[in-house]
Amino acid sequence: MNGGVTGHRQFDDHDTEEWVKDVLATAVRASHICHGFTCVAEGSDQLFAEVLMTLSVPFTVIVPCRDYESSFTDNHAVERFHSICAASYEARRLDFAAPSDVAFLAASQNLVESIGVLFAIWDGKASRGLGGTADVVEYALQLGKRIVHLNPLDRTVTGSME
User: Which CATH number goes with the domain that contains 150?
Assistant: First the structure.
């Protein structure tokens, strides 16, 4: 089964990030993910790719635009982005010139259309802009995709991992 990710770009602390990584690894194994998809944004997307690499699961990166790196907050995230892209099985780069909500939504829709299960690392709140996690989850629901919701605030998991 193909799996993809959507979620928060930042976590409150290192322990929360480690919880997300551990749960994602368990979920990827339990869901029998044979190929992953990620838009490689900071936070959840990059963690998912790193989990896939650790588990030797091939993955595709979907890069929303040509100047995507300018959307990252620091050099470490840019370095992770390049490292993940280099390790990917395939890279899809959408034809948007610069980062924008429209580009991010298009990349996420491309991701959702390519998968059977979506791992949503999300507090359950409404999106703060077009193409946020809530929008991606809604799109996945419209397409009948299975969703595994990891809530980093209360550290709960809902939805079947199998």
Answer: 3.40.50.450
Q: Which residues constitute the domain of residue 129?
A: 2-158
Asked whether the beta carbons of 156 and 16 are under 8 A apart, the reply is no
Hey, what are 106's tokens? 């298009």
Residue 87, phi then psi, degrees to nearest 5: -90, -5
Burial class of residue 84 in the structure, from the number of CB atoms within 10 Å of its CB (0-12 exposed, 13-18 middle, 19+ buried): buried
More confident residue, 162 or 137: 137
pTM over 0.85: yes
Number of domains in the chain: 1
Q: What is the pLDDT of residue 11?
A: 81
Band the pLDDT of 13: cuts 50, 70, 90: confident
Burial 94-103 (b: 16+ CB within 10 A, else e): bebeebbeeb
